[in-house]
Each structure stands twice: as C-alpha cells, then as structure tokens.
Amino acid sequence: MTQVKSSIMQKNDNFYKIANQNKPHIYNEKIPLQRLIQLKPDDTKFGGVKVSESDVDKQFLSKKDLNKGDKIILDFGQHCVGKLNLHIESHGEPMDSPLYLHLKLAELPAELVIDSASYHGWISSSWIQEEYIHIDELPCDLKLPRRYAFRYVEIEVKDTSSKWSARISNPFVISESAVTMDAVAPLKIADKTLEKIDAVSIKTLHDCMQDVFEDGPKRDRRLWLGDLRLQALANYQTFKDYGLVKRCLYLFGGSITTDNRIPADVFIQPKITPDSVFLLDYSLLFVAVLKDYFWETKDQDTLNDLYPIAKRTVNEALNYVDDSGILEACDSWKLFVDWSKEIDKKVSGQAILIYALKQLVQLADIQSDPDLNFYQQKISTLSANSVNKLFDQQKGLFVSNGQLNIASQVWMVLAHVLPDEENKKLMDKSITTFFPIKGIATPYMYHHIAQALLESDHRTEAVQLIKDYWGKMIELGADTFWEAFEPDNLNFSPYGSLIINSYCHAWSCTPTYLIRKYL
Amino acid sequence: MTQVKSSIMQKNDNFYKIANQNKPHIYNEKIPLQRLIQLKPDDTKFGGVKVSESDVDKQFLSKKDLNKGDKIILDFGQHCVGKLNLHIESHGEPMDSPLYLHLKLAELPAELVIDSASYHGWISSSWIQEEYIHIDELPCDLKLPRRYAFRYVEIEVKDTSSKWSARISNPFVISESAVTMDAVAPLKIADKTLEKIDAVSIKTLHDCMQDVFEDGPKRDRRLWLGDLRLQALANYQTFKDYGLVKRCLYLFGGSITTDNRIPADVFIQPKITPDSVFLLDYSLLFVAVLKDYFWETKDQDTLNDLYPIAKRTVNEALNYVDDSGILEACDSWKLFVDWSKEIDKKVSGQAILIYALKQLVQLADIQSDPDLNFYQQKISTLSANSVNKLFDQQKGLFVSNGQLNIASQVWMVLAHVLPDEENKKLMDKSITTFFPIKGIATPYMYHHIAQALLESDHRTEAVQLIKDYWGKMIELGADTFWEAFEPDNLNFSPYGSLIINSYCHAWSCTPTYLIRKYL
Q: How many domains, in total, are found in chain B?
C-alpha cells in the first residue's frame, strides 16, 4: 500500500490575498427575548426534558428579584449566532458585594439539563457554552465578548448578598451572518413538511455562513472542504453568495502540500492556518467544488487560478491506484466517507475518484487541456475495474472488501459508473437491502443517499427519506439541522454527550438544495 | 431606652464635590513574577499548608506545556493590589478549541487549598477571588479587568485539546495605590522585630490607600469611619497624604441624617452612597478624625465646614444619656467597640462619649464656640457618673452591667477619666486580670489595648503585646496585617472560613503609628 512520504505545506499568499479580498460583510440583527421558560423531566422528549412557559412573564422580568441560587431560562425563540446582551441592576440595600453569575448558552434545552462536569468525551470540554462572571458594580450593561450559537440562556445567580438582589432586564442578541434571511424567497409548495424542512435548511446554512462557511458555529469554526461542497450547493439554490464560495476556494487552493494534497480543513483565526488533517476524499472533492462554482458563475479567472490545483489533487490520488486498478487509501491519507468505522470504504473511495475525474474532465474541456483524453481514459478503466472487480453480478451490489454497505452503492450511483438503467436497478437493490437505514448518523451520508435516490429516478423514496430523517429532527425540536442524528438512537453523540454536539451544522443544510434542484 | 425615630439621610452635594476635588492620583507599579511554588499539606503551618519552590524554575515557565488538569502557582513575592497580566500561547498542532482556565488569586497560600464550594458563611461568596475564563484565540495578552488583592495566583488548565498545549509567559501585576512605598523612610531601630512590624504596617496601609482609605482591598472596598480614624493616624506618621483624609472627612461630613447620625460606612462606586448601617461609637469618633486632621494640617476651612457636623453627632449622642447620666445605646444605634458579642459595651460606650467630648472641646476652643463650657460641664458630670456608678473601688476596675471586660478599662484609660496615677493603676489591674488576652480577635481592639498601655506608662507591656499579636502574624507568613486574628484560635474567621478573610485590612495597620509616635 502506498504511504505518504514527504508532505510539506506550501502556502500561496497570493491566493490568500484574493481570499481576503472576498471577506464578507457581516450583517447584524437585534433579536429580542421571546419568553422565559422552565424545564421539567420528560422521557418522551428529546434529551429527556420538556419545555413549558415560565411563571415569570417576560414583561415582569425586570421586577423579578434574583438571589443566591435563583435560575431563569431565557428563550430567544430562534437559533442565534451572535453576542448576548443583558442589563443588570441591584435592588434593595446598597450593593455590598460583587454579583456572581453562571450562564449556560444552549442550542437545545437538552444541553441545559446536563452537568458540564459529567462530560468526559475526547473533544475538548472547552466548547461547552458556559461562563462564570463576577460583576463588581451595578447597574451595568453586560455584553458578553464571545460569540455563541444558542437559542436558550440559563442564568443562575451564584451569589449576591443578603442585602440586595439582582434584576435583569432588556436581554437581546446581536446576531451575525454573512447573509440575511430575507435574501431567499420562502418555498411555497403543497407539501408543508418539505416546505418546513426547506426553511430549516436555509436557517442552518444562514447561521453557518460567517467569515467563511463554518462547520458548526457552536463549536467548530473551521472551514472544512467536504462541508464546503454541500454548503456551496445549497447556497447556489438560495443566497447565491458567490464571493464567500470564492473566498473559501482560494483558502484551500492556497493550502496544498508538496505532494499535492489539500488539507481537510483550514483555520481562519487568528491567522489562516491549514490543518494537519488530510482526507483523501475531501482532497479529491476540491475539483467538484470548483466545477460547481464555475458552472454557477462562469468566473474564468478563478478557474484559471485553481484548475491547476484541482488537477494536482486528482493526479496525486491517481498515484494511489494499485496494480489491480483500484484506489487504495493509506493510514496517512484516509477516506472519510462517513464517521462510521464499521463501513469499509474501498468501493466508496473508488467511486469518489471516478466522480472527481468526471468533474475534472468537464473543466479540462473548458480549459482545452490536452490531458482531457488521459482523464477520460482513466474514467473508463477505473469504471471498468470497478464493475469487474468490485461489483457482484449475482447480488447486484458493489462489495467492499467482502462487505456490503450502502455507502458503496450510493457513491457508485453518484459517480454514474453504471448505465442509467442499471444505476436505477442498483438503487432498487440498495433500498431492498439497506432500508430502513441502520448505523448511519451523519446528515453528510444521508445527503448522498437522498441525492443518489434522486439521480436514479427514486423521487418518492428520496422524499420519504428526507422527511424521515430531517423531518424527524424538526419533530424533536430542531430550529436548525444537527451535526449528528441517528433516528434509532436519539442519544447518539460522536463525543459521548449531547451537551457537546453541534445542533446547527453545515453538512446538514442540504435538503433545500435537494428540494429546490430536484423536486 | 431611647430609640431612633425618624432618620433620613441628607446628602450634602457641596461636601461631596469637595471630596471629589480631593480624589487621589493612583500610582501604578509593575510587579514581576518572583517564583513558582508548590503546596504540601503541613499541620504545623498556618492553614495546614507548606510552601516550597516549584520544580519549574520561572525562567522555564514559557516552555512549560500546560494540558488538561495541569496547575501552576505563581508567587509575586509581595502582597499586591492591582491587575493581573499574562501572555498565553498555544503550542503543538493548530489550536482547535478554546482554552479554558480556572484562576484563584490569594493573599495567603491557605486560601488556595480551600474549595470555594465549601464556603457557606453569611458574607457573600462572590468575594472569593477566582475566575473561569475561555480564550478563543491564542496567542493573547490576558489582562484581567478586575482588581484583586493577592500575592499568589493558581492557574488550572481546565481544558485545551489533545492537539495543543497552553504556554504561559511574562506574568506581571500592575499594582494600584494612592501612595508609593518610597515616600516613607524605613525605621532603623535596634529592635528588628519592631522594625519588621513597622514595615508590614506601612505596606498594609499602602495597599489600603486607594480611591479612599479602603477597609480591605480584597473584599470590602467601602470607607469605614472607625477604620478611617486609625488609618489617618498611621498615615500622619508615614505617608502624610492629607488630601485623602480630607476627601474621606467630607464623604462622611456630607452623609449625615436628619437625626444627626453619620453612617458607619460609605460606598464610593458606582456613586457615593451612605450605607444604612449606623454605629454609635463610629459616629461619635467622627470628631476625633476631624480633630486629629486639624492638629496635623491646621486646615481651618475644613474645620469650619465640618465642625458643625461633629457637634451635631456629639449632641445627638448626648440625647442617649439616660437619667442616671450613663450613655445607653439602642438596637437601632448599637455600639461596635469590638466584634465580640460576649463583651458588654456599656462602659466602653460611656468612655467613648467622654473621649469624643474631649476632642470636641479642643476644637470648640479653636472655633471660640460659646458652647465650650457646656461641653466641659458634660465631661465633668459624665466622668463623675462613670466613677460613681461604673467603677468598682474594691476591684479597681470598671464593671459593665455586672461584667468585667478589658474593653471597658481600655476605653476609660484612653478617655483619661481617672487622674494619671489611677489611670496607671487601672491598667496595672487590667494586666493582672485580663492578660494574656482571650476572646478578642480584632486588631482594632488590640490597637486600643496597646495604646492604653502606652498612655498609662506601660511601655514594656505595650511592646510585648505588639510583638505577641502583630509579630505572630508575621511569623505565620503575613505580608500585610489581617482583618481578624486570634492567637489562640488560628482558624478563626468571622465568616466561618479562612478563604473569605481579608489578609490586608485597614484597622490592623496601626503598629507603625504606635511605634513611631510612642516608642
């Protein structure tokens, strides 16, 4: 198996400069308090908690005396990415001690009932959105300096003194996004469930569109390549913010190694820093993002700049095709495909390589690249090898190192390795074999399944899947779509606790793309 | 017993204006890290903890990788009142999560080994000096916005991530005070213990001299009248900052009630606010602060402004003299004298009234006040009543509602109710009866005992008392003198935990006054 030898990042400052010339303007919106709520245990609800109106009406909040141990929960009525503001006064005798507050900011009520100290997962606990704050002098306008992703804020008074109480008034959020919701006309369709799913998708995308297409504003503010591809597609159907896609393309285009690999993600703050994580399929999909962008914009300058980068990444991947004509990832350059460690990814990798090559040849044609024929040749041989060596005629399914899994079929369908009729049959067979889907927890994989259904003439099944998966999140109280969701295992977290999950996550925003493009 | 009827605060904005014209300039000093330390349990040490050098030398601090759960303790080598600054960087892979820190700032190591959550005393836990801080981007220069009183800072890394470590460098404090230490020439005397006690007294006073004479910079930043009197006396022997005393005199002078009572304390921030706490002896002692100030400065304008206020407070106290010619405090206007609830305070109150009258007549003489004779008359009758009704000839001691206590004798000595010879005998008797002293925990009362010894020709005993009390604090590791200290009960706290005690407290700074004035 090939292994990565030397790999040194070669940053292209000129490309970074172009990326920064396309920095978005950040729009602010003032979001007022909608209501105060209280939480009660309820095993029938997501996270085991039921939301109800608080006894305190919001118009009486400013008169509510808050003393040691008192808690209130603010509900802003929508998912917000931005900064929290509160006005706080002291009431009673002169303020003879500081005010000490504990704030928890949550996207879902489920987060509020989990003790932060109980989290011991592998991802950093520093992402849990909470603060302990001392305030020496009241009245004050408290403006928390950090940006959070939240709808709910629990405020616990750790202490005042026996002489005075704290009173909170005029809470509001200043939200941040590179786009505004009114830039997209809401869908008006007969199917109200799809209409709602479309709206939540757009809100999810909106909240992830910041200085770059963020992965998830609560936690991971990096730019990820695999997520960028899906966000860009959803963006073309909705906000049409081409500058932000261009910025992100140049951030990756300026971050390629001496051995032609693009990192899976790039850090933006405090300075542009390519991560040391490399995923073969993400690197391969750079060409897809470029091709989708050019198809939308016809931006020839960007294509001229980045086409050579796209070629290098695909060429490098071709070096990993073994003697049998099948792509072989390696430990130092793995395939992602999905979080599931159970899925064998060999077939998926092969399909993604072919998919990437098919994007590349379309661009090669535009660029009148003499290598066009070479790439077309590669597609034929790789496709033939796939059918000959990976497809089980009897089962009618692709087999990945002896394993049958849905990812393999879906990516082969999307790569259109088989003629349309057989492609349809492959998907028929996949439905009978793998539906209802088990063991998949990422909207990223669900998106590709739904898209494969739509591209293989399975519209009804696609709509059903979208409703069963994304629709179910809405039933459970989602204002935005989640990083991870396994319908059969509601408490699933890739990190071991619901408190750390991101409930507004880039790669889950795609239903608006699927609905508006295919339906 | 007389009770307070109507009492409405009448603020004098003109006096407050004069107070604000005398706002001090705050001097800043940059205090570097002295060393890193570690703590080990040791029952023979104060607070049960022993300090030793850390394995990490300060010159290697900036190379020390700090990960989840790691702790370091910074020692700035002296008591500081000011703001903490740290430079923090990330080291390793790109910073893929916020840094989460827990900081504890302590005047003494004993505070660091007490879990904040274990404190349940009646004073607010919000005074415990600790912060939880998230930092989203490194490197950063962390400048904590709050002012603390501390020598030690424990920094615990709550979390980084598995990919990077935190590194801390260049910690320093910007200290704050209305005066500078170099303004006072150190005492050069043969007795090195007294020399050291004098130096620690001056440092204590220095750290409490801020925008006003603070009570204790760690916790209570109010201006207290009883403490002001002692701080002003120590200040006259050392920094000679007359403007700050003038400012404080006008803050109290501008805060008198319709029934002629001055509050025990005044809040300065966010705006000048007289407290609703009234103590009869503190109100009476306003005249003493004014007289001491005038004796030092000959500031006739201030005397002209505030003499009428001083008269009103003394006159009002005279209304509380009962038919037997003895002062009777009441529930709504108590006597402080000392924290001890066991001490009966009747005799002390009577003595303090006489003491106050003796200050007043000296000012009345300066002001050519026709009421001079009236006040001299009062002194005679109140003194006579004291001897006739409160002094037990047989015991040779004053008896307070049937109780013998040292406070009674000490205040009668300070009021010089008896002729000098008998005054000396009274103190002889007090020494044989009450020494070694039990049940007194405030430097405030110890000061008056020491001063009574010095004013009754007991120099040797006074020196011994100062060494046994203040000297003992130094032995236990005091950089500044403490709010409360009971030599026989080292864990004594008026609030139930050493973590909340103030270890740099105004009323404990007086040895420098006693040494420099009397010795």
A: 2
- What was the pLDDT predicted at B471? 98
Same domain, A245 and A126: no
The whole domain housing B151 covers: 27-177
Of A96, A125, A220, the CB nearest to B100: A125
Between CA A34 and CA A36 the distance in angstroms is: 7
The CA distance from A246 to B479, in Å, is 61
Task: Give the CATH number, domain containing residue B88.
Answer: 2.60.120.260
Residue A360: per-residue pLDDT:
98
Domain boundary among A161, A177, A193: A177
Structure tokens at A254: 């300026």
Contact A95 B160 (CB under 8 A): no
Cα separation, B387 vs B370, in Å, equals 28
Which of B124, B267, B269 lies at the smallest CB-CB distance from A160?
A: B124
The beta strand positions in A345-475, using DSSP E, are 391-392, 397-398
B139 & B257 share domain: no
Same domain, A241 and A95: no
DSSP-based three-state secondary structure for B461: helix
The dihedral sign for the CA sequence A502, A235, A456, A366? negative
Helices assigned H by DSSP within A367-442:
372-390, 406-414, 420-434
Residues in chain A where the model's pLDDT stays below 50:
none
Strand partners, B100: B134, B159
Of A131, A159, A275, the CB nearest to B126: A159
Return the C-alpha torsion angle A435, A440, A441, A446, nearest 10.
-60
pLDDT of residue B1: 55
The answer for B274, left when phi > 0, alpha when psi is -120 to 50, beta otherwise, is beta
Rounded to an integer, what distance in angstroms lies between the CA atom of residue B212 and that of residue B245? 8
Tokens of B31: 């205090």
Q: Give the CA radius of gyration of chain B.
A: 25
CATH at residue B204: 1.50.10.10
Sign of the dihedral defined by the CA atoms of residues B346, B351, B354, B360, in that order: negative
Q: Kindly provide the ipTM of the predicted complex, given to two decimals.
A: 0.95
- A121: Cβ–Cβ under 8 A, 6 or more apart, which residues? A493, A495, A496, A497, A500
Q: Which residues contact B59 (CB under 8 A, 6 or more apart)?
A: none
User: Does residue B1 lie in a domain region?
Assistant: no
Query: Does residue A491 belong to any structural domain of this protein?
Result: yes
pLDDT at A220: 82
Shared domain check, B109 and B207: no
Which of B446, B435, B416 is CA-nearest to residue B513? B446
- For residues A461 and A428, what is the distance between their CA atoms, to the nearest angstrom? 10
Residue A311 falls inside a structural domain: yes
Measure B402 CA to nearest chain A CA, in Å.
35
Low-confidence ranges of chain B (pLDDT < 50): none
pLDDT of residue B2: 63
Q: Residue written as tokens 């330390």?
A: B37
Same domain (yes/no): B366, B509? yes
- Whether the model clears a pTM of 0.90, i.e. scores above it, the answer is yes
* Per-residue pLDDT at A1: 54
Chain A residue with CA closest to B158: the answer is: A126
Q: Are residues B93 and B218 in the same domain?
A: no
In terms of domains, do B122 and B240 share one?
no
pLDDT of A362 reads 98
B433 and B366 both lie in a single domain: yes
Please tell me the distance in Å from A131's CA to the nearest CA on chain B. 7
Residue A371: per-residue pLDDT: 98
In a domain, residue B475? The reply is yes
Rounded to the nearest 10 degrees, the angle between the axes of helix A300-318 and helix A242-253 is 40
Report the C-alpha gap between A396 and A102 in whole angstroms.
58
Torsions phi, psi for B403 (to 5 deg): -105, 135
Dihedral-angle region of residue A320 (phi above 0 means left; psi in -120 to 50 means alpha; beta otherwise):
alpha
Residue where a domain stops, chosen among B122, B146, B177: B177
Of A115, A126, A157, which to mutate for an interface test with B (greatest number of B Cβ within 10 Å)? A126
